[in-house]
Amino acid sequence: xxxxxxxxxxxxxxxxxxxxxxxxxxxxxxxxxxxxxxxxxxxxxxxxxxxxxxxxxxxxxxxxxxxxxxxxxxxxxxxxxxxxxxxxxxxxxxxxxxxxxxxxxxxxxxxxxxxxxxxxxxxxxxxxxxxxxxxxxxxxxxxxxxxxxxxxxxxxxxxxxxxxxxxxxxxxxxxxxxxxxxxxxxxxxxxxxxxxxxxxxxxxxxxxxxxxxxxxxxxxxxxxxxxxxxxxxxxxxxxxxxxxxxxxxxxxxxxxxxxxxxxxxxxxxxxxxxxxxxxxxxxxxxxxxxxxxxxxxxxxxxxxxxxxxxxxxxxxxxxxxxxxxxxxxxxxxxxxxxxxxxxxxxxxxxxxxxxxxxxxxxxxxxxxxxxxxxxxxxxxxxxxxxxxxxxxxxxxxxxxxxxxxxxxxxxxxxxxxxxxxxxxxxxxxxxxxxxxxxxxxxxxxxxxxxxxxxxxxxxxxxxxxxxxxxxxxxxxxxxxxxxxxxxxxxxxxxxxxxxxxxxxxxxxxxxxxxxxxxxxxxxxxxxxxxxxxxxxxxxxxxxxxxxxxxxxxxxxxxxxxxxxxxxxxxxxxxxxxxxxxxxxxxxxxxxxxxxxxxxxxxxxxxxxxxxxxxxxxxxxxxxxxxxxxxxxxxxxxxxxxxxxxxxxxxxxxxxxxxxxxxxxxxxxxxxxxxxxxxxxxxxxxxxxxxxxxxx
Length: 695
Fold this sequence. Notes:
Elements: H1 2-63, H2 69-84, H3 89-92, H4 96-122, H5 126-134, H6 137-223, E1 227-231, E2 237-240, H7 242-248, H8 252-255, H9 270-279, E3 286-296, E4 302-314, E5 317-326, H10 328-363, H11 372-403, E6 411-414, H12 415-425, H13 427-432, E7 436-440, E8 447-450, H14 452-468, E9 475-483, E10 486-492, H15 516-519, H16 527-537, E11 541-546, E12 552-559, H17 563-567, E13 578-582, H18 586-595, E14 601-605, H19 608-617, E15 622-625, E16 628-629, E17 632-633, H20 638-644, E18 650-654, E19 667-670, H21 676-694
Parallel strand pairs: 7-9, 13-14, 13-15, 15-18, 18-19
Antiparallel strand pairs: 1-2, 1-5, 3-4, 4-5, 6-8, 9-10, 10-12, 11-12, 16-17
Helix pairs in contact: 1-2, 1-4, 1-6, 2-4, 4-5, 4-6, 10-11, 11-16, 12-14, 14-16
C-alpha cells in the first residue's frame, strides 16, 4: 500500500519532467527554424547583392554610363557587410563550414573581378574591360557563386528536416509515455479508491464491533455483583459500576472524582496509597495485588471487603481496575466455622484423652490380665483413639495457622540435634512398619532461626509419610545440607511416588491420594498442609521431586541464621567471651558462628571497614581473620589490633596454603585442612591463656 501511495506523486513528477523536456525541445526547434530561415535569407541576400554588382558592372562597361554604378556601389557595400556578418552555420552543421568559406572566397573574387573591369573603364580602357568580360571569368565566378549558395541552402534544408524528424519522433515517444503514465495513474487511482472503500467499510464494521463489545462489557459490568472501579494513576475513581453504589451507598455521580481511600474505614495516607499503586507497575500489565480492608459506607457503617487490583495502560498512562467484593457474610461464616471446629475439637479432646489413657492402662494390664480377644479389641480401640486425637490436633493446628493464632518461638538453633531427635522419636513408628531410617549430616553445624517444636512437627509429618509409603524392609534417607545461605532437609523414600493427578493438590487441606492403597495407610490429609504453613512461617519453602530409582524426595529449605543477628540475639550468654570473625564468605561466617555455639559469642563482619567499626565500638576476647577480603587483606587489620590490645589472641583462618606467617598473629590455620573443632579449641585455648595472663 505504501508503494502505491508513493507511485502517484512519482508518476506526476515524471510527467512534469517529460512535459518540461517537451517545452525545451519545442523552444530548441523554434530557434533552429529561425536560424535556418535567417541563413536562407542571408544566402538569398548574398546572391541578390552579387547580381546587383554584376548588373551595374556590365551596364557601365557596355554603355559607359555612370548611372549604372549606383546599384554596383550599393551591392558592393552591402555584400561586404554580409560577408562580415555571416551566420554561424558551422555550429549547427559542421559540414557547411567548407561551403561557407568557399562562398566567402567566391564573393571576394567576384567583387574583385567587378572592381577591376570598372577600373579599366574609368581609365579609358573600354576594350580591355570588355575583353575581360568576354573571356567569361565573371560568368564563371557568378555560376560558382550560385552553385555554392544553392548547395548551402539544400544542406540547411536537410539539416532542418533532420531536426524536425527527430523532434517528431521524440514527440511521439513523449505522447506514448504520457498516455501510459496517465493509464497507470488511472489504474492506481482506481485501486486506491477500492482500497479506501474497503478500509472505510472495515473501519465501519470494526467500529460497530467495538461498540458491540463496549455495550456487552458495559452490560457485564453493570450486572456484576462485585463492585468494579477504574482508578487513574493518582487513585482517583474515574468510573464505577452500580454495584459500588449499592455496596457503599454513594450515587454514581458522587463516586466519580472521589479518591478510593474515601471508601476505607481506616484509610492510609495518600502518599502510602499511591506508593502501593505504583508498586503494582513492577508486575507489568495484568494482575497486581489483592487485599482485605474494612470499607466505610456513606452512612458511616462498615463492611468487610476483599479487593483485587489490576493495572493497565491508557494512552501510555497507568490506570487500575479495582474489583471490590463484600465478604462480610463469608467472614461471619468462617468465624462460625472456626469457633465450631475449635469448640468441638476441644470438647472432644478431653474425653478422648481419658478414653485413650484408660485403654492404654487396660492394654498394659493395670486392671489385670486380659484375654487374647479382649487384648486385641482394646488395642484396636486404643489405636483408633490415638488416631482421633491426632486428627483433632491437626485440625486445631491448621485453624490456628490460618487464623494467625499459632505462636512461633523462633530462636537460633542447630538443625543436627533437631533431626537426630526427631528421627529417634519416630524410630518405633518405623519399626512397626519394618522401615529403617538413615541420616546424613554435614561435618559442621548448621544453624537456623526457628521454632524447635514446630520444625520437629514439620519433620515428623514428613517422616511419618515417608515411613507409611515405604515398602517393608525399605529405608528412609534424611539428609541435611547447606548452600548459599540456605539450609535444606531432604526426606526420601522408596515408595510408589506421587500420582500425577494428585501433584497439584498435594499440599491442600484434607488432600489424600485416591488409591485404596493410600487410603489403607491412614492419615488426616492435613500433615503436608501444616508442614507447608510451618515452612512458610519460617520464611522457607517445601517441595517434592521424584527420586531417581523410584520414590519421592520432600525438601524443606530454610534460611540459615544470619551471623550478626545470632551474635546479638536474645539467647546470647553475656558470660561467654566475644570473638570477632572477619571473612567475606557468608556461609563460612554462619558455620563458624554455629561452631562456637555455647563456647563463645561471635560477631561476624565481611569487610575490613566493618571490622574497624566493630573494634571501635566493642572489646573482643579474640579475633579470627581471613587473608583474602577484597578489596583489602585481613592482615591489614592486625597492626591496629596489636596497637589497641597487644595481648589480644589473633588467629588467621584462610584458604591459602601458603598463607603469610605474620609474626603478629598467634596461629595460622588453613581451611579444608583444619576442622572447625580444631579452630574452636585453638581459639578458646588462646583466649583462656590471654585471660590467665591478664589476671
